[in-house]
């Protein structure tokens, strides 16, 4: 049970961000737990046991939380570097995207490579386009097609890394054919990017 700014008790899944002190849903927040050696560990899946605190997955709220919110919540002086926390959390979101791509592949919910993606778009099966950051050439063309279909396009990883996830040498573009996976990927990609944005 958490209390909001007015001291009112709220049921789960609403939590208070220890950075900006605003109440938000559990899914909108990033959870941290304290490890046995008192380090803060990001828990983006909300699965680790132990006392946790919630922060918006943004650099501004992480920075604000290190100014006192974390220490107050864990009732001990915590010396933490918010940029390190942001980088740690960002890489957890990146791992999540990788995991989603691998499981979507296993479930045959991806179209892999330019030709398969074109085909999927023609058949209007595409929910999301994932394009490697270094996929030059036909990338813009595919992005335009996705935009014309009203589909989101996420830039993620490199051709080599996408290839490694999918058991190929290099993959420049992937279409996600499932809407649930597409929104989970979109969210995790945007959080990973926002947490390491240059100021
Ligand atoms: Zn916040």
Question: What would a concise description of this structure say?
Answer:
The protein has 199 residues and is of the alpha+beta class. The chain has two domains: 2-80, Hypothetical Cytosolic Protein, Chain: A, CATH 3.30.1230.10; 92-195, Ribosomal protein L30/S12 (60s Ribosomal Protein L30, Chain: A, 2-Layer Sandwich).
Rg, Cα atoms, Å: 19 Å
Distance between the termini: 35 Å
> What is the helix/strand order?
EEEEEEEHHEHEHEHEH
CATH homologous superfamily assignment of the largest domain? Ribosomal protein L30/S12
Largest pleated sheet: 4 strands, mixed
Task: Decide which structural class fits the backbone.
Answer: alpha+beta
Bound molecules: zinc ion
Write down the domain tally.
Answer: 2
Our estimate of the beta-strand percent is 15-25%
- CATH fold category name of the largest domain: 60s Ribosomal Protein L30, Chain: A
* Helicity range: 40-55%
Shape label: elongated
Which terms would index this structure?
alpha+beta, Hypothetical Cytosolic Protein, Chain: A, 60s Ribosomal Protein L30, Chain: A, 6 helices, 11 strands, elongated, binds zinc ion
Tell me what you see in this structure:
The structure is a single chain. The chain is an alpha+beta fold. The chain has two domains: 2-80, Hypothetical Cytosolic Protein, Chain: A; 92-195, 60s Ribosomal Protein L30, Chain: A (2-Layer Sandwich). It contains six helices and eleven strands. The protein binds zinc ion. Residues 17, 19-20, 22, 56, 61 line the site of zinc ion. Zinc ion (ZN) is lined by residues 17, 19-20, 22, 56, 61.
